[in-house]
């Protein structure tokens, strides 16, 4: 089994990612959290944790880690410090630690922040983080979902390198997609967008 560090494990999407990894026969989650309280929440469920702050050195969080899912975010409070520079810190540390694959939770609109009517600062930060990952030399998948909601999983998505229109998608289906692209033979060195759709998540990757 491969150890997967989940940055942002305590977030709404992060918790779902950790749960899916717990149920996987291929991967074992290591939840990266910022506080002892959050740590205890995961450890009572038998989930391995590590304390880490994206605004500081994170190299210690990657000990014995094979792959990374970056699902952290500041919720708009510190887009430069966390969403941009925190992501860059984790990317650089991952390269140093020879991480096999880095899966980035990005956002639709991060390819052209200047065209967005709102959240331009956030999308610019995500764009900068994505570009840093692309040029890092790491194997990566950059997943750009539409607007997130808390609907139940449908296990179906619409996936393209660039979708023709905006849309919504459940955090549950995003979490499934992120876990799916951890596989060695799926979505290597690619960036793609997803919204809710009619194609089974596993089959949707045939589009890339």
Automatic annotation (TrEMBL):
Pfam families: NAD_binding_10
Gene3D superfamilies per UniProt: NAD(P)-binding Rossmann-like Domain
InterPro entries cross-referenced by the UniProt entry: NAD(P)-bd_dom, NAD(P)-bd_dom_sf
Residues in coiled coil: none
Residue ranges constituting the NAD(P)-binding domain according to the UniProt record: 8-184
Domain of life of the organism encoding this protein: Bacteria
Name by which UniProt lists this protein: Uncharacterized protein YbjT (DUF2867 family)
Organism name: Gelidibacter sediminis
Taxonomic lineage from the root: Bacteria, Pseudomonadati, Bacteroidota, Flavobacteriia, Flavobacteriales
């Amino acid at each position: 089994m491969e150890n997967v560090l989940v940055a942002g494990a305590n977030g709404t999407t992060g918790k779902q990612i950790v749960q899916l990894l717990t149920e996987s026969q291929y991967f074992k989650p290591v939840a990266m959290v910022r506080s002892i309280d959050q740590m205890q929440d995961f450890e009572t469920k038998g989930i391995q944790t590590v304390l880490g702050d994206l605004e500081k050195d994170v190299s210690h969080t990657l000990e014995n880690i094979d792959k990374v899912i970056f699902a952290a975010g500041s919720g708009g409070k510190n887009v430069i410090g966390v969403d941009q520079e925190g992501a860059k810190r984790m990317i650089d540390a991952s390269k140093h630690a020879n991480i096999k694959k880095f899966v980035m939770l990005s956002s639709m609109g991060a390819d052209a922040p200047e065209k967005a009517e709102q959240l331009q600062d956030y999308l610019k930060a995500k764009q900068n983080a994505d570009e840093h990952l692309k040029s890092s030399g790491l194997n990566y998948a950059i997943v750009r979902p539409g607007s997130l909601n808390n609907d139940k999983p449908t296990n179906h998505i619409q996936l393209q390198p660039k979708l023709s229109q905006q849309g919504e998608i459940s955090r549950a289906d995003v979490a499934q997609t992120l876990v799916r692209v951890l596989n060695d033979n799926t979505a290597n060195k690619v960036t793609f967008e997803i919204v809710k759709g009619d194609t089974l998540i596993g089959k949707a990757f045939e589009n890339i």
